[in-house]
Each structure stands twice: as structure tokens, then as C-alpha cells.
Amino acid sequence: MSDYGHQPGPPPAPQQPPAQPRPSGPPGSPPGHDHQMQASATPSVSFHRWVYLELRKSVDTLSGFWLLAAIAVFLVIVEGFFLVVGLFDTSGFTFTIFTSPMAYVLQPLLATLAIMLVTSEWGQRTAMVTFALEPRRTRVLAAKLVAALALTAAFIVVLLLIATICSGILAATSGGELEWDLGVGDVIGLMLFLGIAVMIGFGLATLILNTPAAIGAFPIVAYAIPSGLGLVGLFWSDFAPVGRYLNLQTATNPVLTWSVDTGSDWGHLSVALLVWMVIPLGLGTMRLLRAEVK
Amino acid sequence: MISVEGLTRTYGSFVAVDNVTFTCQPGRVTGFLGPNGAGKTTTMRILVGLTPATHGRATIGGLEYRDIDNPGRHVGVLLDAGAQHGGRTGREILTLGALAMGLPRSRVDEMLHLVSLTPEEAGRRLRNYSLGMKQRLGIAHALLGDPQVLILDEPANGLDPAGIRWMRGLLKGYADRGGTVLLSSHLLHEVEQIADEMILIGHGRIVAQGDKKSLLASNKAGRAATTTVTSLENAKFADLLRQRGLTVTEGPDALTVSAEAVEVGRTAAEHQIVLTDLRAVDRGLEDLFLELTSSTQRDPGAAMSGSAPGSASPSYPPGPPPSGFPPPPPSGQQHPGVPR
Questions:
Q1: Among residues A62, A187, B124, B297, which one has the fewest Cβ atoms lying within 10 Å of its Cβ?
Q2: Looking at the DSSP assignment, which residues form a beta bridge with residue B256?
């Protein structure tokens, strides 16, 4: 605070090295007398910094922190349950028992996390501050999406850690009979499957921009509609092949098992992703770009 | 520094901002004054790119807001001090701002110190803040990037009298060092004391603009002078004034005369009446403000303009106020509601 209230100096230098902030001082020491804005004097903040900012925002509130903690705790509980079952009867237990089924546990939770990253800005009205600091809204949105995917990757690491510990315990107690069958395809499948869930949640969030509504919309898209389509297909056999194109669960299950093989698998996956991921995300982005930020 | 040209924003058939044009100069505090819902906030939101304009252009330093790289370093914005996550601490909110602008963390402590938030208060979550503390934090956030331009919507809201005085000094000093300040208020008293320039807005239109002197001068030009006078013999003096053809209203303590003070004084001197008080009624900015914006007042009775409540006041075109205001009120009260 040494330069508190010092006299106006020369206008800011036209060029300054990046990340080298102007000499700081209390309010607008020297705000500069030039009428023309020296926009080039202050380079934009790098994209990875915005990603870091978004990651920080996801943990710096109690609600955000506890959402992350609750997901981790929930994973431990479910894995623990599997472990207890396995301790009674090891037959049929492999390492992937501790990983792949967990994708269905993480799917709604990580989607919720992605939704919250977007909608909490609107619910808490911080979007006003965020977009005033970065008017390029797509940049903010992209940083949020990268942050959501980074959190997803982190949870996959956590999941693999817990799965390794549980498998280790099981292997030790059953005399090393457990099959360590995790392949590269399983990990990639897990990442893609959860990444898709996160992107779908993200798209719904940008489209709806309301926390409870978007959190409610995800299970409808991911579970209720697939169940409904399946039921209709049971009673109306002509509809069944059409329904598979819109059924998110049957279309993405081969992704998880890393077995998207046939042309019809690819067809189902492409159409389902187009309808439930690409279109909501596109419309939502357009909405966000035009929206009046209140 | 701030230039707004022909700015219009409509919502369906509702015109929130109607062809607004003004500029804000560096080194000056510009007060944006109008009743609630007059279009102040919408104009400011358009300025910082949060609301798209229907027509017109708003630039800061010659650039549209979205074209400014790292705008937080050039334009300090406080539109709503409550628009922050209630679960974050004050320090965290400023830290996020500093990160987003690429500033060192030390800047956060400087700003906290500047707005007199103690480390203990800065560690509290925003939802536990009083309105005044939120406002201080918002001002700290606006000043973080050491901007040349400040855009503040109702910055004095929720501040206590000491806080308002502090903010006045802060903004004056900021403008004196060459900064450009645009602040809005619906309280004339606040703006009157701090603003070098005033823009009066009502119904989305600018009804008057200029510095305080020119606003008052143009107000005075259009109306008959009024004087209040107190003497030792009020009743007798009233008769004498009436004999000179002046209109006199007798109040409980004072007489209100439709004439220049010098005319009243001369009458007293001629008749050797002892005056105890003689003053020209200088109708304050508040009356002007209420008159100019009376058609937009929610409570028409609040307009002190002699005209019956509900009677439509003429719609003023943008620009300096025209002459020909309604006659002054019969009462001799001056500056109602403005403590002196």
C-alpha cells in the first residue's frame, strides 16, 4: 500500500509482457488520461487458467466440496459392498467386477457434477461476474466442459484405486485366485462412457440453465426414455429397431465394454449421441451466447 | 471514455431504453439518476455486454466491451453486489477475480484493506454478509484490475452514512486521478454530492443532462422567482406586499412571495419593517428530478410539482430541459426531504 493515492503517472505502457500485471495500487492509480483503450496492454488470461478457475470454483463452496466428497464416499460404499459379497464367495469375481459396473454408479453422479458446474452460475447469478470478466462466453463454456471432463478423469483414477485395493484384499484372502483382467479397452471404454454421460449432462444444463430441472432431466434422458422405448418395442415389434437408435443405454453400453463392432452399433451410437448430446449442446450453446445474463 | 449512441433496448412492446445518447469523460464522475425501472441498469448491462442492445452502440475507450482483451483490467464493474455465490468467502471471491484477470494474489489483500474488510470478515461466507459488506466487497472486486473506467450500479445501496461518505471520497479521488466513473442511483441526494455530471433518465429516455449548475440554471430560467420572508409584523407586511401587486401566501411562520428577494427587501425598507429572515427559494435538484421523471414515478403524489397527481407531465425530449416548467408549489418549503 506504499503507493496509496499517488499522483497520476503516464498512461500505461502500450505493451507489457504477459502475466506481468500492471503495477498494482489502490483505486486506479494511475487510471490514465488517454481516451483510447489500450486493449493490447492486457493480454487475455490463458485458457488453462480458466480451466483451473472452474476446477477451483467446483470445490471452493461447501456444497461443491461435499458433492465431490459424497461421490467418492458413495464409490467406497458400493465397492465395499462388492468386496463383502466377494469375501463370502469369490467365484466369478474378477478385477473388472470392481470397475465396469461402477460406471453405472458414476454415470448419474458425474452428470450431476457437470450440470452443477453450468447451472450454479445461473442460480447464484455469478454468471454476471464471469461473463463481465470474459465476454467470450464460448471460452468460459469450453473451460467448464474441460473442467468437467478433468473431474471425470480424476474420479476414474479414484475408482481404479479403490478397485485395486478391493481386488488386492480379495486376492489376498482367497489365496490369489482373482483374475486381474483389466485391459486397455476397459479403461478407454470407462472413460468414453462416463465422458459421454458428462457431455450429455452438460448439454442439458446449457439448454435448461436451471439446476433442479437439469438434474431431473438427466435420468429422464438416460433411464426413463430408454426404459420406455424398450417397453414400446416389446409390444410393438416394428418400433423396436427404430427405438434402438434413440435408446441411450443400449446405444452406449457397447462403448463401456469396448465392443462397438457392427455397423448397426455405430449407427445406434451416432444417432443417440446426435439426438441426446450434440443437439442439446448446440442449442444450449446458442442459447447461452444470446441469453441476457441476469 | 464511455460513449453511448442512440442506444435502444426493447422487450416485446416494452421499451426499456429509448434512444439514449451520452458520454462520460475521464476525470469526472457521471451520475445516472432515475426512478426504479427507468432503464439505468439495462443501459449499464448493455455497456458491459450482458444484455444485447436492440439498436445503437455503446463503447468504452472506443471499443465495444466484447472487443476489450481482459476487460476486468480496464473496466471495473459492479452491477449487483449480491450476484456472487453465497457459499464463497469474500477472500475467495476476490481471489477468483484476481485469477480471472491474471493478477497477483497480493492484490486481493490490498483491495480488502482498501474497502476496510478485516481478515476475519473476508474469511466469512458471503451469505453471512450484511448488504453494506457485500457492497464493499463488490467495490473491491470492481477495483481489482486497477481499471480506468468504473461502472457501478447503485453502489451506495446498503452502505451506512459513514460508508457512503467513504465511497464518495474513494470515487472522487479515483476521478481526480483521471478515472472515468459512471454510477447510478435513484437517490438524488447521493448523486448530487458526488457527481460532476448528471444524466436524468425516466421511462428509458434521457430527460436532462449536464452539470449541477447548468441543470439548476435551466430550471430557474423557466419559472417565476419565489422568496420566503419573516418579519416582526408578518400580517402588516403581507398587506404591504399585496399593495404592490405581489402574490403572498401566509404560512404559520413565514410569508411566501412570488417575487425576487430584492423586491421584497425593498418593500420592507420603504416601510421600515424589520425582517428576521429573507431568502430566495432555490428549488433544489430534487424537485427538478421529480418533475422531469414524474410521468414514470410509481407514486404520482411524490411529485412536488404543484400539478395534480396523475396529471400527465409533458414528455421531455432528450437533451437539456426546455423552459416552461409548471409553477412553483404554493408552500414555501424548500428542498423537501433534503436535509441541509
A1: A62
A2: B228, B249
* pLDDT, position A205: 96
Interchain contact, A61 vs B110, CB within 8 Å: no
Full strand arrangement of the beta sheet holding B14-24? B14-24, B2-11, B55-60
pLDDT of residue A30: 43
Cβ separation A44–B69 shorter than 8 A: yes
pLDDT tens digit sequence for A27-51: 444 444 444 556 556 778 899 999 9
The ipTM value here is 0.83
Question: Alpha-carbon dihedral of residues B266, B267, B273, B275, nearest 10 degrees?
Answer: -60
CA distance B278 to B255: 10
DSSP string across A123-155: HTTTHHHHHHH---HHHHHHHHHHHHHHHHHHH
Query: Residue A237's CB: how many other CB atoms inside 10 A?
Result: 8
Judged by CB atoms within 8 Å, which residues 170-209 of B form the interface with A?
170, 173-174, 177-180
Q: Which of A171-175, B103-107, B163-167, B305-309 has the lowest mean pLDDT?
A: B305-309
Alpha-carbon distances, residue A96 vs A79, A103, A238, A239, B235 (angstroms): 12, 11, 36, 34, 105
Q: Which of residues 25-54 of B touch A (CB under 8 A)?
A: 26-27, 45, 48-52
Residue B18 DSSP SS3: strand
Q: Is the pLDDT of residue A167 over 60?
A: yes
Mean pLDDT, residues B82-111 taken together: 94
Instruction: State how far Cα B162 lies from the chain centre.
Output: 18
Which amino acid, residue A64? G
CB contact under 8 A, B99 and A22: no
pLDDT, tens digit, 9 for 90 and up, residues A94-124: 888 899 889 999 999 999 999 999 999 988 8
> CA dist A29 to B145, B173, B179, Å?
11, 10, 9
- Helix, strand, coil shares of chain B, percent, nearest 5, are 35, 25, 40
| Chain B residues within 8 A of A53 when measuring between CB atoms | 96, 99-100
Mean pLDDT of B251-256: 85
Type of residue at B269:
A
- Minimal CA–CA distance to A200: which of A108, A137, A264, A106? A108
* b/e sequence A139-159, b meaning 16+ C-beta within 10 Å: ebbbbbbbbbbebbeebbebb
pTM for the predicted model, two decimal places: 0.80
The confidence score (pLDDT) of residue B223 equals 62
Question: What is the CB-side half-sphere exposure of residue B132 using CA atoms within 13 A?
Answer: 11
pLDDT averaged over chain A?
Answer: 84
Residue A163: phi and psi, rounded to 5, are: -60, -40
Orientation of helix A62-88 relative to helix A47-59, angle to 10°: 70
Which residue blocks in chain B are alpha helix, DSSP H? 40-47, 90-101, 106-114, 119-122, 131-143, 161-176, 188-194, 212-221, 234-243, 261-270, 285-292
Check: CB of residue B274 under 8 Å from CB of residue B230.
no
